[in-house]
Amino acid sequence: MNPITEKLNVDKLITLALQEDISSEDVTTNAVMPEYKKGTAQLICKEDGVIAGLDVFRRVFTLLDPDTIIKTYVQDGDTVKNKMLLAELTGDIRVLLSGERTALNYLQRMSGIATYTKRVADLLKGSGTKLLDTRKTTPNMRIFEKYAVKVGGGQNHRYNLSDGVLIKDNHIGAAGSIQKAVEMAREYAPFVRKIEVEVESLEMVKEALSAGADIIMLDNMTLDEMKQAVAMTRGKAKTECSGNVTRENIQNIIDIGVDYVSSGALTHSAPILDVSLKNLHAVE
């Protein structure tokens, strides 16, 4: 991760996660290891996948003790295999024990997202359709989860509500019509921002095109409707397919010709990648 981003955004989130796990003390560690002792441990992969979050994993320990040394044998984006040695950690045994769960939570979650994203992105290879994530992320985990999507070969949709104009069904309801919502967005938003409109029917596609939308999101439409919508918008606006897109059904979309496909499943349904901290022992 970018060191500036790490300092400004990531450190405070990791600190909160550590505070959640260590509200006053690590009772067990303090009981069995009352004083400093140097130790080492190994980070072992327990299933095949794509690794992501090694810098976050490292930062958990160095926030607890800057003298912790972590030697990695892989880098984010690498394909890893079951039983592979990923890293070796050396430092205060108390730090290795107290930081273990938080560090692994980040690494497992981010690697799981990268692994799932890679498998979905591979299905789209050669299609010309780009894979996007959504804002369906775990609270206070968005920066980590969206980074993991990129590591897995996907692309980030808008990061948050300040990042772009996306007019959805309730915005249209609030404004009164697609035309009115787009007009108001054009007047309010800087000219450099593109305007995306979510539609659920071909009639709404026509209205969005007439209003001058830059991107049209085809939400929960049938395959036939999406094909017609792509033909209608070609050369006039970009298209994005959205709505319950998963690894299992994404192949149905490949031949439609949309520019983008967004999938909340990348972040809300990806299983973790199993990694573990093992073989902790004291060293001289």
Tell me what you see in this structure.
It is a single chain. It is built from 10 helices and 12 strands. The model has no long low-confidence stretch (mean pLDDT 94). It has 284 residues and is an alpha/beta fold. The chain is elongated and about 75 Å long. The strands form 3 sheets. It has a 6-stranded parallel sheet. A 4-stranded antiparallel sheet has the order 3-5-1-12, with helices on one face. Helix 3 (54-64) packs antiparallel against helix 4, helix 6 (169-175) crosses helix 7 and helix 8 runs parallel beside helix 9. Strand 9, helix 9 (223-233) and strand 10 (238-242) form a beta-alpha-beta unit. The protein has helices spanning 3-21, 27-32, 54-64, 93-123, 142-151, 169-175, 178-188, 202-211, 223-233, 265-268; strands spanning 38-45, 49-50, 69-72, 79-80, 85-92, 130-132, 165-167, 195-199, 215-219, 238-242, 260-262, 275-282.
Write out key terms for the chains shown.
single chain, 284 residues, alpha/beta, six-stranded parallel beta sheet, four-stranded antiparallel beta sheet, 42% helix, elongated
